[in-house]
Amino acid sequence: MKILVAPDKFKGSLTAAEVASAVASGLADVHPGVAVQQLPVADGGDGTVDAAVAAGYERVRVPARGPTGAPVTASYAVRGDTAVVELAEASGLHRLPGAPAPLTATSAGTGDVIAAAVRAGCRRIVLGVGGSACTDGGAGMLTALGARLFDRAGRDLPFGGAALAGLALLDRAELFEVDIELASDVDNPLYGPRGAAFVYGPQKGASSEDVETLDAALRHWASIAGPDFASRPGAGAAGGVGFAAMAVLGATMRPGIELLLDLLGFDAALTGASLVITGEGSLDEQTLSGKAPAGVARAAAAKGIPCIAVSGRCRLPSPQLHAAGISAAYALTDLEPDPARCMAEAAPMLRRLAHRIAVDHVNNRY
To answer: What's the CATH code, domain 2-39+265-362?
Structure first.
């Protein structure tokens, strides 16, 4: 019997690779001879580069600018001429040195990483766009890739979403030629009530006044950079990075988990599997909207392979789980009701959960 263990991270406690390792160890405790393949996954958000590295890509570390412009060291994953770039690596909320900077945060660091990959010979860039700290419409990313943004006096435009209100000219003459595929499940437009500023700005520290300022600036940005792209699904991803990638760089967009599963060789890994175990920190309504466990379960179901899930907590009733292709779910809170303890002791508790899975789902098959 072969079991494929393909979880996403447990945010705040374990990486996807650590989740997979804990589950595999628990299965081996009960059935030492069972064949277990570990394939950590991601859906385009933070942890995407780690998942690619776990699947055999090489990690490359490069200097980049963080969301405030301060220098950071970021990384991308590479195999052949394909690079996997994670926006959160350079431009994520965790890169903010202190307080949020909703009006001035920049995506320039993401452009720095893409530029480094292109200079190293990569021709295909897979860009995961979750976890952004900025709402700059992707303007910072474009400047790092060779674009120039000028105000009405002919000066270079400052970084940040608010500054876009003063944009007079976008010069694309020196832009890199690069093939970008966006990995994202966000379907928001660039601006408006469902746009980047209104929906995601408050999560990045924007006040109600900041949101209005950013939304107006994004409208102006779209009028110059590509008005036909502003309403496209995903234009609002990562504070408008999706818009810039599509409107200016000609990027295509695919559901994050589908694109990442293809890159990680998930279909081949399913060969010979009798059971798939997936999971993430919280199984909830968002899981059903294109998150990694739902994508893994869907791919397993297409091959007629049962799929179960592990999580820190599960807020989905059985009918919703079954509709998503997940036949059973095991949560750390089944063992310990205290969420803080679950996070602190996630690895050993996951190993114990895997003992239950081995008894419930492996004994009668092995």
So the answer is: 3.40.50.10350
